[in-house]
């Protein structure tokens, strides 16, 4: 793992009514919370509160991409297929209940057992079973030996430790139930919760984990329906930090404002289109693949990056972004960097697909930033310019969007990815392994075998070769998703805010505990 570390308020309202209180910090965002229950949360909006309130066996301190002990005192492979963790002494949740190895076993058993379609259980593909061998010892038995990524998986949204006396074993818990149960053992606890409007946090005096003691006692998160209102509030000092997602025009404007600082962190965000292999156009698997290849030959990523995003994003020609070890560019090599109408038409005609092909393309106007509307209007124009497609664009707000795509409602749909950990596998296994989070019915044994091989190969050079090959095979023979753009982390803060740059690192975690003013 070390060898592959990365080089790399609904509506509005200004003022701080209900904010962080005296000496507190207010963070603004348009990223909506889907769920506070880890079993149902696999999105960046939900990761923000999870990072603050839940403890993990291992975590990523500011500036680090290698997992370090959090609730654990230490973790190690005790056998090629057994990963053993010993917990710190005296751990407890904010409600006073003890946090023991039984809590850890319950958390992972529950995650796998519920297997919610919107949750992160797909990250635990290699977990066979979890055992609590004594009050402080947990053993994970893995299906495949020498898993190079499992320690990092424990730091992801699959890894929060929940209170077995609060959470039901077999169903997802409502957010208000979660807050009322106070099952928090991370750096902060939630003390007031108005979902996707205002969330207030208070430092947890008992936390003594990898993220360190919080530097600010009170933090609030204010949720915005539009980036315009968030931009105005941060430039006027009505909030302290604006974090996800300002438009490129907002960022340009704020760079000229002397009252705020615009800070950047390593890239890793990915924007892409998913194809539902069951419901997309095409009468046979061969015809469906031809449609996907024709779409891949018709998009202009350079135009999207320059015209829509003002080069705050760069073209992505693989699911693994440039800057990660093993990143290739097979979509450029196979389909070209510019639209190729002749190649697209040939894919369709060779498969007997009549044109124009009608594409029902769904996108989300709030979760991935307001520029999504402009982005998908541009994609529609690009596809229809070929004369091969007729595109019907449809937009749905995030919470409904998540539920509907899980019910096969969308033949083609927008998603974005914010990595769980700094390893190229995190752009492969979650997308293309069985039970993957895309929920698009992609499962290919040969690809699964390649993914298993790369995650369990201890030789770094051999592992990189497998990673490069699987990217090529996916682009040439499958295209279950079409990568479009990758981008940096960008946050804006008042000049009196300290510590923000510390959390804009390659762990892709936004940690409130480092902020102060």
From TrEMBL:
This is Peptide ABC transporter substrate-binding protein. Residues 67-436 form the Solute-binding protein family domain. It comes from the Bacteria. It is found in: Cell envelope. It comes from Nocardia uniformis. InterPro entries: Peptide/Ni-bd (IPR030678), SBP_5 (IPR039424), SBP_5_dom (IPR000914). PANTHER family: PERIPLASMIC BINDING COMPONENT OF ABC TRANSPORTER (PTHR30290), PERIPLASMIC OLIGOPEPTIDE-BINDING PROTEIN-RELATED (PTHR30290:SF10). Belongs to the bacterial solute-binding protein 5 family. Its main location: other. GO terms for biological process: peptide transport.
């Amino acid at each position: 793992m070390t060898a592959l570390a990365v080089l790399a308020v609904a509506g509005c309202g200004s003022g701080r009514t209900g904010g962080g209180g005296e000496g507190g910090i207010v963070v603004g965002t348009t990223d909506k919370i889907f769920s506070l229950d880890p079993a149902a949360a696999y999105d960046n909006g939900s990761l923000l509160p999870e990072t603050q309130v839940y403890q993990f066996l291992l975590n990523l301190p500011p500036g680090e991409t290698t997992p370090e002990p959090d609730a654990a005192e230490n973790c190690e492979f005790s056998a090629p297929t057994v990963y053993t963790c010993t917990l710190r002494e005296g751990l407890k949740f904010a409600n006073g209940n003890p946090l023991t190895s039984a809590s850890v076993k319950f958390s992972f058993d529950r995650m796998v057992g519920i297997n919610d379609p919107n949750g992160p259980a797909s990250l635990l593909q290699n977990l066979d079973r979890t055992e609590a061998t004594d009050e402080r010892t947990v053993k994970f038995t893995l299906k495949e030996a020498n898993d190079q990524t499992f320690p990092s998986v424990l730091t992801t949204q699959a890894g929060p430790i929940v209170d077995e006396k609060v959470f039901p074993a077999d169903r997802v818990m409502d957010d208000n139930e979660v807050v009322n149960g106070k099952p928090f053992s991370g750096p902060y606890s939630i003390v007031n919760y108005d979902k996707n409007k205002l969330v207030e946090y208070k430092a947890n005096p008992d936390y003594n984990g990898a993220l360190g003691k919080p530097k600010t006692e009170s933090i609030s998160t204010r949720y915005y329906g539009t980036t315009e209102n968030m931009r105005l509030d941060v430039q006027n000092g009505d909030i302290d930090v604006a974090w996800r997602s300002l438009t490129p025009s907002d960022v340009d404007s704020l760079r000229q404002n002397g009252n705020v600082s615009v800070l950047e962190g390593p890239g890793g965000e990915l924007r892409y289109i998913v194809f539902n292999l069951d419901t997309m156009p095409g009468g046979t698997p061969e015809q469906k693949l031809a449609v996907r290849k024709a779409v891949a030959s018709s998009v202009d990523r350079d135009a999207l990056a320059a015209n829509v995003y003002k080069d705050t994003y760069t073209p992505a020609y693989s699911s693994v972004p440039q800057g990660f070890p093993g990143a290739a560019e097979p979509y450029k090599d196979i389909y070209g960097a510019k639209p190729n109408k002749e190649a697209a038409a040939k894919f369709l005609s060779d498969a007997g697909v009549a044109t124009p092909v009608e594409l029902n393309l769904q996108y989300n106007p709030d979760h991935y930033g307001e520029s999504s509307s402009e982005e998908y209007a541009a994609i529609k124009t690009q596809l229809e310019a070929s004369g091969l497609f007729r595109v019907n664009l449809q937009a749905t707000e995030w919470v409904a969007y998540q539920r509907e795509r899980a019910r096969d409602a969308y033949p083609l749909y927008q998603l974005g990815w914010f990595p769980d950990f700094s390893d190229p596998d995190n752009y492969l296994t979650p997308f293309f392994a069985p039970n993957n989070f895309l929920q698009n019915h992609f499962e290919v044994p040969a690809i699964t075998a390649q993914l298993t091989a790369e995650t369990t190969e201890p030789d770094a050079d051999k592992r990189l070769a497998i990673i490069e090959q699987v990217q090529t095979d996916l682009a040439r023979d499958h295209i279950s998703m079409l990568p479009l753009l990758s981008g940096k982390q960008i946050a804006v803060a008042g000049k009196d805010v300290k510590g923000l740059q510390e959390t804009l690192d390659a762990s892709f975690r936004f940690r409130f505990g480092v902020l102060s003013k």
